[in-house]
Write a structure and sequence with these properties.
This protein is of the alpha+beta class. The chain is about 25% helix and about 30% strand.
Length: about 675
């Protein structure tokens, strides 16, 4: 504590002024006793006592006014040690690492909460008028608090914000995003603070910083937490398969890895258990060899018609608990079950009807569409249980017999997807007669055409951007699909006749393609747009089931199929939270991005008429990113000579003269009140 202008204290000599005035007012005068006033002496005694007390208070208040004003002029201050900056207004961006490794607990709380506390300290150290923004560094990097001058509101937002540490790390992108936020500000003083544990997997390349526009900006990297004192075990692999040697049992192959210690020695065991429906179904242990432990556990196989979730869990006390378990879906709800029916099988030949289809599906990215594929010929279709499929593709298949046609119609009405592709074996009259209940339109037959192209502008948005790869497709023959007023046409030819049409029937959907899936009717399978078109048809026919994924990275967005009007699709998180999307007109595929939770997500679909009977259509698993399990401390990035680092915490003078002037104002008001009271007492 100190004074900026200590000579101003000489003004305290002014305190003698009210003392002198008070003394002059209270000077004794000669007393003359008059009989006339003797009777009033008792009445005036109380009034004189009150006035004397008031005079004393007035003296004290006036002395206090002079003393407070003089001390305020001396500019008193207290010394305060700022945890960030130098007390001047600045444009500050804070980068918070919310990757999985920040879920590690240290000192009774998680590292991400320690980051929150540190960020709040920084905000509290900024003076009014500063500009602040907060960016989260979990992949993908995103803005938590956009640039604002309301520092107090930013602090409240940061305090209330839910911070979940489950994602991978993307510090480089987060730093670039923070700098973009700063460029929107007006203050010249710019500072960036990056908070992270800077584990080895963070891998922020110092060379990348040179590409950022850091001129005039001060940047600092702060490590949160210390090196873990325990090794970290995590589930590296867990896969469930039917075991032919154990009837009615499912085998789960498990691989466990460790980081942070040497587990090569003999005798070290990894204890693991499998939980199904909240109960431990199997447990075991495996020895570590060179940091890896492998084992196989067996659990009772669930019914084939059910989708069951299993959790593989490591029983241990290690550095990070969040990666000690992995979820598995026991069933087919983690993929679209696709049944390919080959109408013209010619094995080991390019003339095979499904030659190009199977090769295209093998190139399907898992994040685009996850498939469980079964292939049969047209004769075997009658013996296949359609309930085990989500989508059936009839590729140049002759019209099914009446009994099979009835099963296909029932399959679609129950929620299945049916795709019919053209070919020389497709008899228009027979298809109209037997599958007319689900066909999108009447088929008039087939006809030759001379290098006819698709009309790319005809797509209403149901087909993917890769449709541009169909630009050069040349068709030499096609099915003639009868145009209708209410026909849902997804793709047309240049002569405006339909090329791909669809129809909703019951809970399912049927698509009819006027082209063939081989080269019989044109060169469609040879063009780049064939795979996107094939994926789009399967996705459209599968409906909500098309969102099935085996594994999804935390923070990824899932594209759901557009529900029909008066229908909905909903996603249920592992914690029970549900987000529902209703069908719109025109149809729009919703995106689900709330994947900041580890475990199995369920995708359900239903209709407005019976909202409480939503059916399970698909599942996907949000798994811990394995790169985050390596908690070995890395190197905190060092800056080049062209970047000015933020100074260490400094001590600044915090004036409290404004509070003294406020006290002076209050004392002056009190002095006026006392003077009025004194007059009343006279």
């Amino acid at each position: 504590m100190g004074l900026e202008t200590p000579l101003a204290l000489l003004g305290l000599l002014g305190i003698v002024i009210p003392l002198v005035v008070h003394r002059m007012r209270n000077r004794e005068l000669p007393r003359v006793v008059l009989p006339t006033f003797a009777l009033l002496s008792r009445a005036l005694a109380r009034s004189q006592s009150k006035r004397a007390f008031t005079d004393l208070l007035l003296l004290v208040v006036r002395i206090a006014v002079i003393a407070a004003a003089v001390i305020a002029l001396a500019a008193p201050y207290v010394r305060s040690r700022l945890r960030f900056g130098d007390g001047r207004r600045a444009n500050v961006a804070i980068v918070i690492d919310d990757s999985l490794s920040m879920a590690r607990r240290e000192g009774g709380s998680s590292l991400i909460e320690a980051e929150r506390t540190r960020a709040r300290e920084v905000l509290a150290a900024l003076p009014d008028g500063s500009e602040v923004s907060v960016v989260l560094a979990g992949k993908p990097a995103r803005v938590l608090i956009p640039l604002t001058r309301d520092v107090s509101n930013a602090a409240r937002t940061l305090e209330r914000a839910p911070l979940s540490a489950v994602r991978s790390n993307d510090l480089g992108q987060a730093l670039e995003l923070a700098l973009r936020q700063q460029h929107r500000g007006v203050l010249a003083e710019r500072r960036v603070l990056v908070l992270s544990d800077f584990a080895r997997h963070t891998a922020l390349n110092p060379a990348e910083l040179k590409g950022f526009e850091l001129e005039g900006a001060a940047i600092s990297f702060e490590r949160i937490g210390t090196a873990p004192d325990k090794p970290n075990l995590y589930v590296a692999h867990a896969h469930a398969t039917a075991d032919p040697t154990r009837p009615n049992e499912t085998s789960i192959a498990i691989e466990i890895r460790s980081t942070g210690s040497d587990l090569d020695g003999e005798g070290l065991q990894a204890r693991v258990e499998v939980e199904v429906n909240g109960k431990v179904a199997s447990r075991g242990s495996a020895p570590f060899e060179r940091g890896v432990a492998k084992t196989v556990l067996h659990i009772p196989s669930p019914p084939a018609s059910e989708t069951t979730q299993a959790v593989v869990r490591i029983v241990t006390d290690d550095a990070l608990a969040a990666d000690n378990q992995a979820s598995i879906v026991l069933g087919d709800a983690d993929a679209v079950r696709l049944l390919l029916v080959n109408g013209d099988p010619q094995p080991a030949s390019r003339n095979d009807e499904l030659y190009y289809v199977t090769r295209a599906l093998a190139l399907m990215p898992p994040l685009e569409l996850t498939l469980h594929t079964q292939t049969v010929d047209a004769l075997s279709l009658a013996h296949v249980d359609l309930s085990g499929s989500d989508v059936v593709i009839l590729a140049n298949v002759p019209a099914p017999e009446a009994a099979l046609a009835k099963r296909l119609v029932d399959f679609v009405e129950a929620g299945g997807g049916l795709i019919i592709a053209a070919g020389p074996r497709v008899d228009a009259a027979a298809y109209n007669a037997r599958l007319g209940g689900v066909l999108p339109s009447h088929v008039r037959g087939s006809a030759r055409c001379n290098d006819l192209h698709f009309a790319l502008g005809s797509s209403p948005g149901a087909l993917p951007e890769g449709l541009a790869g169909l630009r050069e497709v040349r068709s030499k023959e096609r099915l003639l699909i009868e145009p209708q007023a209410q026909l849902e046409s997804l793709l047309s030819y240049e002569d405006e006749l339909p090329a791909l049409v669809a129809r909703n029937q019951g809970e399912g959907r049927c698509l009819l393609l006027a082209a063939s899936l081989d080269t019989e009717y044109g060169d469609l399978p040879l063009r780049p747009g064939f795979l996107p078109l094939l994926a789009a048809m399967i996705r459209d026919a599968a409906g909500a089931t098309a969102a099935a994924r085996a594994n999804v990275a935390p923070g990824d967005s899932i594209t759901l199929s557009a529900p029909r009007p008066d229908h909905f699709v909903e996603v249920r998180a592992p914690g029970g939270q549900t987000q529902r999307f209703w069908g719109q007109q025109p149809a729009e595929a919703p995106k689900f991005s709330a994947t900041d939770a580890l475990g199995v997500f369920e995708i359900r679909a239903g209709a407005a008429a019976n909202e409480h009977a939503a059916k399970l259509k698909a599942t996907f698993v949000v798994a811990p990113p394995q790169d985050e399990s390596d908690l070995t401390p890395g190197v905190v990035p060092e800056l080049g000579a062209d970047v000015q680092p933020i100074a260490e915490p400094v001590t600044v003078h915090v004036p409290f003269a404004p509070w003294l002037w406020l006290a002076v104002f209050g004392l002056v008001v009190l002095e006026g009140v006392l003077r009025v009271r004194r007059r009343w007492a006279v």
